[in-house]
Specification:
Elements: E1 4-9, E2 12-17, H1 28-40, E3 48-53, E4 58-60, H2 65-68, H3 73-91, E5 97-101, E6 104-106, H4 108-114, E7 118-122, E8 126-128, H5 142-150, H6 152-161, E9 165-166, H7 167-172, E10 178-180, H8 185-197, H9 201-215, H10 219-233, H11 237-247
Parallel strand pairs: 2-3, 3-5, 4-6, 5-7, 6-8, 7-10
Antiparallel strand pairs: 1-2, 8-9
Helix pairs in contact: 1-3, 4-5, 5-6, 9-10
The chain binds acetoacetyl-coenzyme A.
Length: 258
């Protein structure tokens, strides 16, 4: 059973969590398959990855509550690590990632979306971290990424109250970058992915690394990270192609990822 599907569409990939009968809830099989599928993404061939959920109702409705209900303390810790390791793999994927949030993104689903670089939502999307209503903390990075994305005060309010929010509020607090009618979401996500895919891939990878690594450190170290990555771009054919074309007042050749 393929709980995670990867479709290649030219220079972009669409990864779908495919367990619609349980609103794409993440059990250990889904999480393991997600890890395996992420390992197959070749940054040489795929320049941007969209992550979405199967069906029209849910992106991902969270970690699998039936499975979690029976866990011991040790198993709970191991389940958290399983999810965290895979979400970290997604977060540090060398290519840009866009979550196309097409419905419920609760608990582990909200956390999955926050492990992507950019979140686009349908008007029907619902975000939330309902864990404290189930007697647990967010377990796949929610306490950490929510606070970094929307600030500690708003993250604490949402996590302590376990309040769900609809797409317009998610947009207002900066959790998502844009909201579209449900039927337009995937086309808009693909439009953005293709636009990203048309830019210099090595430079984009360097931007992702600079932003992600820089946010984990102080500004003095962060600008050093940027300097090194900025410098590394001058070793690429794509930089020479684009700058020469600019000076010759013509359009640059397609980027070659070199
Ligand atoms: N785990 C397991 N099964 C789930 C699930 C989940 N997180 N979410 C939905 N399902 C299943 C339901 O059990 C139901 O299965 P059956 O048809 O076999 O009964 C099916 O999906 C459809 O769900 P509903 O009938 O509940 O659909 P609804 O439209 O009435 O409600 C919903 C939709 C509000 C999203 C509701 O399903 C819900 O509240 N789901 C749970 C959301 C949640 O609490 N998520 C957080 C989990 S904890 C977590 O994720 C921890 C972590 O950080 C790692």
């Amino acid at each position: 059973m393929a709980f995670v599907e990867l479709e290649k569409k030219g220079l972009i990939g669409v990864l779908t969590i495919n367990r619609p009968e349980a609103l794409n809830a993440l059990n250990d099989q889904v999480i393991s398959q997600l890890s395996e599928v992420l390992d197959t993404v070749d940054p040489g061939e795929t320049r941007c990855l969209i992550v979405t959920g199967a069906g029209s109702k849910a992106f991902v409705a969270g970690a699998d509550i039936a499975q979690m209900s029976k866990l011991t303390k040790e198993e709970g810790t191991a389940f958290g690590k399983l999810g965290n390791d895979v979400f970290r793999k997604l977060e540090t994927l060398p290519i840009p990632t866009i979550a196309a949030v097409n419905g419920f993104a609760l608990g582990g689903g909200c956390e999955l979306s926050m492990s992507c670089d950019i979140r686009l939502a349908s008007e029907t999307a619902v975000f939330g971290q309902p864990e404290v209503g189930l007697g647990i903390t967010p377990g796949f990075g929610g306490t950490q990424r929510m606070a970094r994305l929307v600030g500690p005060g708003k993250a604490k309010e949402l996590i302590y109250t376990a309040r769900n929010i609809k797409a317009p509020e998610a947009l207002a607090i900066g959790l998502v970058q844009a909201v579209y009618p449900a039927e337009e979401l995937m086309a808009e996500a693909e439009k953005m992915a293709n636009r990203i895919a048309g830019n210099a891939p090595i430079a984009i990878r360097a931007c992702k690394k600079a932003i992600n690594d820089g946010l984990q450190t102080d500004m003095d170290k962060a600008v050093e990270i940027e300097e090194e990555l900025f410098g590394s771009c001058f070793d690429t054919a794509d930089q020479k192609n684009a700058m020469t074309a600019f000076l010759e007042k013509r359009k640059h050749d397609p980027f070659e990822n070199k």
